[in-house]
């Protein structure tokens, strides 16, 4: 009669663990009291004993967390191989002939020889730490001819970067959004939930939403941000998280701070003025003298303070007063580690800036500024904006759950079922306009002729020029007018539909549906909205 054999691991695992711990302890005692000194992987005897005890506790804990194997009745599971019914693990036919009961699967965990209190007692368990929301986003806008590379696999980008000879040129309006995450506040949240020392955020994805201010009644819409790699595969149940975590750590800059795909020379995207966004903080070299390190801190404070003054005075690349950017830069200057006159100037400027902020922001702005190195920047790019439209943005991010799959460590075991956790949404950014040197608006509709009039505006050295075009379904919107010098009214769009009976907010209007050849997306213009557009009125 076939019998089910209990595996070696089931019979002897805890004996092996206890024997290993005893052997290490005995060896440590002999070598310590025998006058010998030895190191194994830079661990002395005391550290070796402590490490052995820790690993033994973790192994015992892992066995306690293992779920019992679920078996299904033989009546429901039919083997594809008839021999399995006779000689397989169940041996159902042999058991029936012998007239005995099949031995049941083991349903109880093995009791531990040494009981560990780590992660067992309720007071020692963890809750999931709250993930700090990003700060108010800083935004920049422009129009660039991108060289979009073919998207590679994530590990290929991490190892060699996204550069490839296979690129596609595409001229687009863009908006870049950046924010900061306060790692000091995050450390407080980690400690409150009893996370181990040295815990950190492993960013999986940065999320962006926008709200169109030029579209009445519009709500927040998710943005497909630019990333140079294909969506990576997330681990399934039973697969290793360590390899996934390692890949995320190696590729953190491509995930959380990916650079836009600008041309190799010129015509690049201007990033928001957020400290350490262009390059990470320098790692102090052991040979650097204290004087040299202090000079470097003073230079950073001076640079960030000068940029903050420009943002406060409206001398940003977009020529707009940006108090949010000024506040981030001024606080970074105070938290730069500078001393002497540079620190005094930075504090005086921050006090001056706070007086110009709205009252609801002043209290938060007066809080002590953390070290600039403890503020992690995030960056995302929206390459699918509509020229001439204004938006607000908000940001949040997703991080790997440190206790994914480790039920015994959490006060609520269901929290272990979440592979990742999310931060809250940031406050909304200031309004930002998608800029372009070519804009067009729907200005008239002719139902009888089944055509509409589109006014195209072109920016020239002497100002904005405009021209009207009669458009039917299938026509290109705008074209190059060779009779007018330097007046190319091409928009790279095609009319694909006209709806003369569109109802918006219970009012009838005309909608123009067009294809943007650069992005491959379908968009529309509403006659009722374009007639009230403030920017169009300025251009007229």
Describe this entry's structure for a reader:
- This protein is α+β, with helices and mostly antiparallel strands.
- It folds into three domains: 8-116, no CATH class; 138-281 and 370-433, no CATH class; 438-539, no CATH class.
- It is built from 14 helices and 14 strands.
- The strands form four sheets. Strands 3, 4, 6, 7 and 8 form a five-stranded antiparallel β-sheet that branches. A three-stranded antiparallel β-sheet has the order 1-2-5.
- It is globular.
- The chain starts with 7 loop residues before the first helix and ends with a helix.
- Mean pLDDT is 82; it is low at 70-79 and 106-120.
Q: Care to give the gist of this entry?
A:
It contains 14 helices and 14 strands. By secondary structure, the protein is an alpha+beta fold.
